[in-house]
Every structure is written in C-alpha cells, then in structure tokens.
Amino acid sequence: MMAGLTLAAIAYPSRWRPPDSAGFAPQIGFFAFMAGSLGFAMLD
Q: What are phi and psi of 16, to 5 degrees?
C-alpha cells in the first residue's frame, strides 16, 4: 500500500504537463496514468 501511494505521489504531478503540451486537457494525462496502472494491476 505504501509503495503504491509513494508511486502516486511521485507520478501524479508529472502526468499534467505532457498532454498540455500536446494540446489535450491536463486531465487526460491523469486518466491515462490511472488506466495504465489499473491495466498493469490486472496483469499481475
């Protein structure tokens, strides 16, 4: 649990800038991060 929270605390701020520079809303990066994390968790 702590590892997941630590990863989220580090990765959360870095998800906002790349979609913004590509012309998308900043929330798109957050949703992409969440979808990727959930997909990876399902594989495990």
A: -85, -35
